């Protein structure tokens, strides 16, 4: 919804002549800073841009923006720049969704670098949010840091501590993803892995082949 509104309002009917990716990014950043844009909008936009890029590129193409791949990079970079400093205003689910989506940022236009720098600056906020997340959100956060090849000790320790508390209610995908991501980060905490092992045994029949392979 947010991206469609942006494209229609800013670029529809020839309102803005310049369609270069950098210009698109600048306009998007200003659009995202409007008071009416709330955390849920930012998380949803990140999900569309990085997990459904074909849809996003089609929207950009529909208003004559060339090189949709580059423009997409500028949009993600703008989104990271605006949203990550605002994490204290986000709920836990919104934080997990946003970070998981942004971890898929493309290399184009420095988007991936912007996400990594933004996360590093927002470390204390992510740590605080992780302490209250449910298993699915924890798995999203842990997986995001693996995908970005970013190791933030304070965040990971918060994920591990919370995992011990909530592993017993994790569903099969969350338990498998958490175990896999923590192992990839070499966070081999006995308490966390014992809790995850117990849960994985309990939900073993629900695991898919790919989850079992993890």
Notes on the structure:
- This protein is 70% helix and 0% strand.
- The chain has 214 residues and is mainly α.
- 42% of the residues are buried.
- Helix 3 packs antiparallel against helix 5 and helix 4 packs across helix 5.
- The protein has 13 helices and no strands.
What is the string of helix and strand elements?
A: HHHHHHHHHHHHH
Oligomeric state, counting identical vs distinct chains: single chain
Spatial extent as radius of gyration: 19 Å
Query: What is the strand tally?
Result: 0
Taken from the alpha-carbon principal axes, the silhouette is: elongated
Q: How would you characterize the largest beta sheet? A: none
What portion of residues belong to β-strands? under 5%
Which class do the helix and strand fractions yield? mainly alpha
Overall residue-averaged pLDDT value: 89
**How many helical stretches?**
13
Helix content: 55-70%
Amino- and carboxy-terminal Cα gap: 35 Å
User: Which ranges are low-confidence, i.e. pLDDT below 50, for 5 or more consecutive residues?
Assistant: none
